[in-house]
Amino acid sequence: MKLFTETGRYLLMLKGMVSKPENGKMYWKEFMHQCSDIGIGSLGIVVIISFFMGAVSAVQTAYQLVSPIIPKSTIAQIVRDTVILEFAPTLVCIVLAGVVGSKIASELGNMRVSEQIDALEIMGINSKAYLVMPKILAALLVIPMLVVVSAGLGILGGRIAGTASGILSATDYTKGLLQNFTPYNVFFAMAKSYTFAFFISSIPAYYGYNVSGGALEIGRASTKSVVVSCVLILMADYVLSALLL
Amino acid sequence: MIEVKNLKKGFGDKLVIKGVDATMQAGKCNLIIGSSGSGKTVFMKCLVGLFEPDEGEILYSGQDLVTMTDEQRKETRKQIGMLFQGSALFDSLTVEQNVMFPLDMFTKDSYQDKLKRVNEVLDRVNLKDANKKFPAEISGGMKKRVGIARAIVLNPKYLFCDEPNSGLDPQTSLVIDQLIKELTTEYNITTVINTHDMNSVMEIGDNIIYMYQGEKEWEGNNKEIIFNKNEKLNSFIFASEFLKDAKDMRMLEVKGKIDNDRNMDELLNSDEDVLNS
Q1: Do B124 and B258 sit in the same domain of this protein?
Q2: What CATH number does the domain containing B122 carry?
Q3: pTM across the whole model
Q4: Per-residue pLDDT tens for A157-180?
Q5: Which domain range does residue B267 map to?
Q6: What per-residue confidence (pLDDT) applies to A167?
C-alpha cells in the first residue's frame, strides 16, 4: 500500500513541476548551474572509475581467454562491447546515483527543513518547477555525455593496461576494436543512460523535496534515495536488455 | 485587509483549527499569540496558502485564497512578503543576491535599477556593508533584517512574520519589532505576526488574537490586554512572577497612582490592597 502511495506522490511531483516558468532567464540560469554541478562535479570520479574499469576488463578477459585458437584482438573486442553495453552506462550510473543522487536529496532536504522551499512558494514561484525540473533536465543532458566519456576512457584504459602488461600489442587492440562493431550497441547504451539519468535525478529529488523533520531525516532521505535509485537502475537494466537486445 | 471566516484545518482525525474568524487590519501589526500547539503556525500557514484549509474562507481584499485559480493565487502571492522563523535565506546566494531574487524573478528591470532597489531596502533595515556576505557569515539579527528586506523588496501589501524574535537577544528583538512596526505604518502593509514574545505584544500589538487549542479565545489590542479578564489569556501572558509584577506595575502606572520615576519603589512597598484597588 505504501508503495502505491509513494508512487502516486512521486507522479504528482512530476506533474506539478510542469508549468510555465515565472522567468525563463532564471530557469535557464538554474539549469546551467545544475549542468555544471552534475557534469563537471562528477567528471573526476567518472574518469577514474572508467579508466580502471577498462583496464581491469582487459586484464581479466585475457586471463580467461587461454585458448591459443582465439586471436588476441578478441580481447579488445570483448572489452569494447562490455564497456559500451554494460560498464559505462550501468556502473557509472550506479556511482552517479551515489554522488549526484545524495547531493540532490540532501540539497532539497535542507532547503525544505530550513523553509527555503516555503519561501519560494510564498513568493509565488512553483518550487517544484524551479528546483526539480532543472535538475532532471540537466541530468538528462549531461549524464549521457558522461557515459560517452566513460566508454571512451574505458576502452583507452583497456588499451593501456593490455599493452603495458604485454597481453596484446597496440595494433592488435586497434584491430580488435574495429572488428564486428555494432552501432546499435551505442544506441542501446544511450537508451540506458537516459533512463538511468531520469532515475538518478528524479528519485532523490522526490525524497529530498518531501523531507520532514531535521538533519537526521535529511540523511535518511539521502540514503533511501540512493538505495531506491540503484535498485531501479538494476531493474531497468534487466528490462531494457530483455526488450532491446 | 485579510478577513478569515470560519477557518477549519485538521490533520487526520485531529482538528487543529476549529473554525476561526478574524480580521487582519491594514496598516496595523496583527499579532497571533498562543502557547505551543495552540495552532497559530497552522493558522498562519493556511493564511499564506502553504496549507489548504478544510473549511472556511481567507479573503485577501475580498478575494478568497481558497477558491482562487493557480494563476490568481500566484498573483496574490506576489503581494505577500514573509519573514520566516529561521529567516529561510538561500544559503548559496549572498545577501545582495537573496534580496535581489524576487526582483530577478518578477521584474524586467535593469541590473542597475535592481541593485538600487536592493540597496534602498537594505538601507531601510539598517544593514550596510553586508551585500557580499553569505548568510552563514552574518548574525541571527542580521539574517532577520535580510529576511525583512527580501520580504519588502517588491512592496508587498501583506507581510507575514513567523516568530521574528526567536533566537534574538532582547535588544535586537526590540529593533526588529520597531522595524516591522515602522514598515507597517510607512507602507500601509497588513502585517501578521506569529509570536511568543510578550515584549512584542506590549510594544507593537495593534490587534492581538489569542489562540487556545485551535480556537480564537480573545481579541483586542496591547492596551486592553493588560486589563483583560480572560483567565486562560492571563495565565499565558503573565506566566512568571516577574511578568505578574510587571503587570501590576503597569496597572498602577495606568491608574495614575504612581509615575514612571517612582513606580518600582512604590510597587515594592505596596500591599495587596493597593495593587487590587
Answers
A1: no
A2: 3.40.50.300
A3: 0.85
A4: 999 999 998 888 899 999 999 988
A5: 240-277
A6: 86
